[in-house]
Amino acid sequence: MASQDDNAAGMLQTLIDSFKSHVNERITSPFAGAFVIAWVLVNWKALLVLALSTRGIEDRLDYLSAHYFGQVDALWKPLGLALLGVIAYYLLATLFLALFECYGWLKRVVEQKFDQVRWVEPTTYIKLKASHARRVSDLTDLAADNQARYDKLLAELDAARGNQQKVSADLEESHEALSQSRADLGQSREKLAALNTRCDGLWRVVTKGRRKVEGAVERIDADHEALVDASMRLLTAMGYSPDNFTSENAIRYHASLALGPGTPPVLLDKGLVMKVATDVLVTARSQQRELGKSLAAWASHIAVDGREMEPDDTQIVAPTRFAPESHA
Question: Which key words are in the record (predicted)?
């Protein structure tokens, strides 16, 4: 049963396809198309009434049967217009075909006339053809050379544009570097001015410190001379010759002799005084050396830190002053 149903469905589909193809052939034929167009042109009022009227369908059909759909309007007028249209179509097609044929005939006649006028000898034609071929070859080579030159110039132009962009970038970087260098130069000038000002201040500080050191050295020398004079007077009073104690070592030596065993009390007292005076002299020399060291340390401290500072009383140690005449 299933196979019979499939066969029946296949036969029905074949009939439907055949009917569709037949209808398409009739509709697409020139006469059928002309008849349809003519029928619509003749009965367009009836179509509007049928499509757009507000009456019922039965009233519209009765109205159309009474006024429009007669044999003349429904068949004969569209058929006649279709025949006239088909005849006119073929007449126009024949007319256009005749015109094209006439145009072709006239073209051939004109070309023959021109061929007769332009006729040349075969040798001349061959020469002209060869010359034309050479000319075409030369122009082709020239065009190729010009194209190659154009491509080369275009490549050079692209390279020049690239170099221009690079030069522009380098120029901008140079401007930025120049601006930075100018700013750095201004800062360097300011720092140099500050350093010059600081150097001037340091020079004044060093000069002041040098003066203080020179004053301290002068005081130490004066105390040393006073101590030597006191020692000489003391040893002279003890009975020693001044030619034998011209140095500190001689002073220490004579002081030790004065403090030896069996020394009289008077000389013993004088020896003690001499020993004290000698110790004071050694202390003064030691203070002088410490003063030089403190001055050198202070100068190096200024050089390392770069700070402006003046030596105070703790940096420069003044020697202990005494009155040698009192010991005498």
Answer: Membrane, Transmembrane, Transmembrane helix
